[in-house]
Amino acid sequence: MPAPIRLRELIRTIRTARTQAEEREMIQKECAAIRSSFREEDNTYRCRNVAKLLYMHMLGYPAHFGQLECLKLIASQKFTDKRIGYLGAMLLLDERQDVHLLMTNCIKNDLNHSTQYVQGLALCTLGCMGSSEMCRDLAGEVEKLLKTSNSYLRKKAALCAVHVIRKVPELMEMFLPATKNLLSEKNHGVLHTSVVLLTEMCERSPDMLAHFRKLVPQLVRILKNLIMSGYSPEHDVSGISDPFLQVRILRLLRILGKSDDDSSEAMNDILAQVATNTETSKNVGNAILYETVLTIMDIKSESGLRVLAINILGRFLLNNDKNIRYVALTSLLKTVQTDHNAVQRHRSTIVDCLKDLDVSIKRRAMELSFALVNGNNIRGMMKELLYFLDSCDPEFKADCASGVFLAAEKYAPSKRWHIDTIMRVLTTAGSYVRDDSVPNLIQLITNSVEMHAYTVQRLYKALLDDISQQPLVQVASWCIGEYGDLLVSGQCEEEEPIQVTEDEVLDVLEGLLVSNLSAAVTRGYSLTAIMKLSTRFSGVNRIKKVVSIYGSSIDVELQQRAVEYNALFKKYDHMRPALLERMPIMEKSASNGPTEIVQTNGETEPSVVDSKHPPPVSQPANQANDLLDLLGGNDVVPVIQTTVPTKPASAGGELLDLLGDLSLTIPPMTAYNKNGLKIDFTFERANPNPNVAVITIHASNSTEADMTDFVFQAAVPKTFQLQLLSPSSNVVPALNQGTVTQVIRVLNPQKQQLRMRIKLTYTLKGSPVQDLAEVNNFPPQSWQ
């Protein structure tokens, strides 16, 4: 058989391939030749073949068939074979494959080999892919090599010990005696790996951390020697002596000094020396300074040292390197809560970073700017942030608008400034604000009694300029409906009043109703505003006409409002002024009906919770798990069970009770009918939240025997929230002599089509019965 081509020739041949298909063909041909050679047990060229196989593996082609050949090379007595064999083992084997256990004995023999380079190969392989079983078997040999005088082996043994500790933490104490003399070594390689080993042990064991705190003076001395030492070509990097070792020592000092006064005191001076003596013209020096800053901030350092660290980060902000600026902003963001005044000194530099072209830097600068806002600088900072809001990319507008709202609410110097600021946000980024901004702003305006005339005038002007910003239009519609009489009377004292007639105001609101830019919610605000003006303006006939027109709107919500308002005009006109009078001052803490805000998976979502009910009674764990298993795991939300079998209030609420026959009826439906058990659903609308559907189940039994232990369970997709109240009974009477009722409340904020999975469990004639069903045919009125 001819000799196989060399690795260099294979690389040259593969690089000549013009297409991927041509490359694959070359690889397949060579792999076939290598397989043939392996089958013939060709020891002469095994090393060459495995080397070529590793190159193919690096290119992404399968090379697993060479695993056993690597073991054969490791068992060879030739160093060149062992080198390729161990390299192949590190690349092709891992602890998930049982094959790697076959090499344990070979590694053990090589760890005791007379040649240091063979021992080094074994240490590298064990430290790279050794499993917990291998580490337990070979930890003794590694500990022995850690005590040797050979610096080449000690540094490799230290890194191998790190891997052993990560795999088998209980072996940590075995290496404790060997660490005593590691820091007295002059060799920088041994020092570096020793610090890595000590860091790993301190991070994994509080006892080790306390034990090694006595080494702080020794670490400080090593770091001082590195700073003060002259030029050493062996360790010099851009004029700095061994920056890698310096960084490692600083990280270890950070761990040792955290929450310890004595250790922190011992390292204060050296940290100040590193911070003042390190050259900053090169990136190497910046890396050391950054680690120094992190160490100063983590330990119990002196206040002057912390100011020095923040000033270093301030210098980083002026660096041309974007990565350094980003690191500085991130670090300042972490420290702003503890050292607020020191960070404030760099406020102008931070604000300048808002103009950076890099989006990551821009976002960090925005977050830090909001963290720096306080009562003293609120006007200046808001001016800069509002300018940023005007010019920033759309991806920043939502977060920036939310930040402005929160800062203005917390530090507003006056109510007028607060209202002006929020209106500025609504006019520039109204489409990006959060959903809760509209009710929050309405509440602010309502509570600012002396600003009503000024606010309604400003909002009316904003409406004339732009009706595309939906939150702005909604707030403006609400305010015009509440304070339209102030707008028309021209009573504004804060600025020059505008002259506007009642018809002009109604023209604007009617324009919102017919505009293509208006969302359904906005039209609802506009129609309600027009209705409110019927008690504030004299042109009631015009308002009646507008309201009657929308009584036949295709939008169900708008139609329902118009029908109810029409009824007010016709049947209950004497009650209209009282019903439409101005809103009282709102209490911030007041809950909004049955809907509370709860945290769900890190996001704020509404949850249907009736505050009159006692806390939910937890169901047995197996029932809940069964239902989740039944319903497909992650795509459903759990059911909230309560113990109160009270029926919900009438869905129409007070207004629909007042209007009597106007409530829109939702047809009932049969959700389940099988084996004599029939489940009917009837529907109501919860008041005051129109997004909550109240479903009452009626379970009847047409068989000749009672159904006992009856349990009804239900689940809905994640976009819904579901609350299941307790049933009226757990026995469904035979021969349809009675029904069991149970109430379900479903919150559907996104108005999506309702889907439900149900699980029924009961006992019939002594035999347990369990059945599953999916209900998808809910009437549209129940979820629209």
UniProtKB/TrEMBL annotation:
Key words, A-Z: Cytoplasmic vesicle, Golgi apparatus, Membrane, Protein transport, Transport
Residues annotated as domain GAE: 664-779
Nucleotide-binding found in the keyword field: no
One Gene Ontology cellular component: AP-1 adaptor complex
The keyword Transport is assigned to this record: yes
InterPro entries reported in the protein's UniProt record: Adaptor_Complx_Large_Subunit, AP1_complex_gsu, ARM-like, ARM-type_fold, Clathrin/coatomer_adapt-like_N, Clathrin_a/b/g-adaptin_app_Ig, Clathrin_app_Ig-like_sf, GAE_dom
One Gene Ontology biological process: intracellular protein transport
Superkingdom: Eukaryota
SMART domains cross-referenced by the UniProt entry: Alpha_adaptinC2
Topology term for the membrane: Peripheral membrane protein
Pfam families the UniProt entry points to: Adaptin_N (PF01602), Alpha_adaptinC2 (PF02883)
Subcellular location as annotated: Cytoplasmic vesicle membrane; Endomembrane system; Golgi apparatus
PANTHER family: ADAPTIN, ALPHA/GAMMA/EPSILON
Family: Belongs to the adaptor complexes large subunit family.
Protein name: AP-1 complex subunit gamma
